[in-house]
Amino acid sequence: MAASGNYIVESDIDNWDDAVSSTETFATTAVNITTDRITVANDIDTASLIRFSSTGVVPAPLVAGTAYYAINIDATTIEVATSAVNAAAGTAVDITDVGSGTHTLDTGEGSGTTDRQEIINRVEQTIELITKDYFYSKAFVIYIDGNSNDRLFLGLIPDVLTVTEILLSGVELPDSWWTYDVNSVYLDPESSTGDEDDLPELYLRLSYKHRLFPEGMSNIKVTGTYGWSSTPPAIKQAAIILASSENDSTLYPGYSSTLKSEKIGDYAYTLADIDMKSSTGIESADKLLRNYIRKKPMLSTV
Fold first, then answer.
1. Calpha distance 291→240 (Å, rounded)
2. Rounded Cα–Cα distance for residues 59 and 137 (Å)
3. Which pLDDT does position 258 carry in this prediction?
4. So what's the pLDDT on residue 246?
5. Which residues lie below 8 Å from residue 69, measured CB to CB, with a gap of 6+?
6. 3-class secondary structure for 197-235?
7. What is the pLDDT of residue 272?
8. Strand partners, 143
9. Distance (Å, whole) CA 267 – CA 263
10. Which residues pair with 80 in a beta bridge?
11. C-alpha neighbours within 13 Å on the C-beta side of residue 195
12. What average pLDDT does this structure show over 176-200?
């Protein structure tokens, strides 16, 4: 299983240090806590460096991303040692639990899935810290004051993508009554029909036409998703630059130690003007992020 983030995945980066010699996945059923052995697909030599990761929890007491060493039992079975010396001596770790999820085994000296995931996570957290934004779809639940009107602005930044449920003081509002846009939820004046079965609903809609959201304190609960429907290319490229630079710091230059200036239209600045709290330290990445920096952080949701 490859490392993956919200903006980039492992295959986007082409300069990972010393790729592992082999990677394979295995199920919890491949772990035998009676014999402390793991069934594998590759023939792994004794004293080979190995690392484990998982979609759930790795077998106990193993720790994800930690360097261990294989003890070759046969072509499809290994035990795990805490050092190369212990591997050569046949001293194995006592495995007490099979773990959960699908496990991954990386063999070789290179950075494994866990190491690469940490780099991707760190890069994306840096981008979000600097821009005060995130660039993917995110679920929200928000409690907001009613305004005795038929439109309610949610105050979410960036855009509202979907609304799946609205509750008025704990009572669900029929989804045929309302619709939404990127900023708000509101009465849908065209959703009802003239069918006989819809007459009770039509009567209620007419009664509440101008007061769909009654006044109150946090009496309206709205559930949905907001954010970016897709990651901007500039954000993805900035993430690739930052991850690649972490693997090889000579690839992308940082800011020089001497002051320099740049002019964009009528705006000119020098290095002294740069707020380093809003900088990755890599000039090419900062240029890509510059247009996405928010002056204020987004409103939080439950």
1. 17
2. 33
3. 41
4. 87
5. 46, 47, 48, 49, 50, 80, 81, 82, 83, 84, 86, 87
6. HHHHHHHHHHHCCCCCECCCCCCEEEEEEEECCCCCHHH
7. 46
8. 221
9. 6
10. 70
11. 6
12. 73
SS3 assignment, position 245: helix
The stretch 232-240 carries a mean pLDDT of 96
Higher pLDDT, 281 or 189: 281
Which pair of structure tokens corresponds to residue 114? Answer: 């866990």
CATH of 18-110, one of 1.25.40, 2.60.40, 2.40.30, 3.30.2010: 2.40.30
Distance CA 88, CA 70 (A): 9
pLDDT score of 297 more than 50? yes
With b meaning 16 or more CB within 10 Å and e meaning fewer, what string describes 158-188? bebbebeebebeeeebeeebbebeeebbbbb
Cβ contacts of residue 175 below 8 Å, gap of 6+? 165, 166
- Write out the two tokens for 285: 């990445």
Q: What is the CA radius of gyration of the chain?
A: 27
Contacts of 98 (CB under 8 A, 6+ apart): 28, 29, 31, 33, 59
The conformational region for residue 240 under phi > 0 = left, psi -120 to 50 = alpha, else beta, is alpha
User: Among 195, 152, 197, which residue's Cα sits nearest to residue 173?
Assistant: 152
Q: Does residue 298 surpass a pLDDT of 80? A: no
Domain boundaries, the chain: 18-110, 122-134+230-292, 137-227
Tell me the backbone φ, ψ of residue 84, rounded to 5 degrees.
-65, -35
Q: How far apart are CA 174 and CA 96, in angstroms?
A: 51
pTM, two decimal places: 0.63
Residues in contact with 161: Cβ distance below 8 Å, sequence separation at least 6, in sequence order: 137, 224, 225, 226, 227, 229
CB-CB neighbours of 202 under 10 Å: 13
pLDDT band at residue 15 under the 50/70/90 scheme = confident
Local structure of residue 149 (DSSP, 8 states): B
Q: Are 104 and 23 in contact (CB under 8 A)?
A: yes
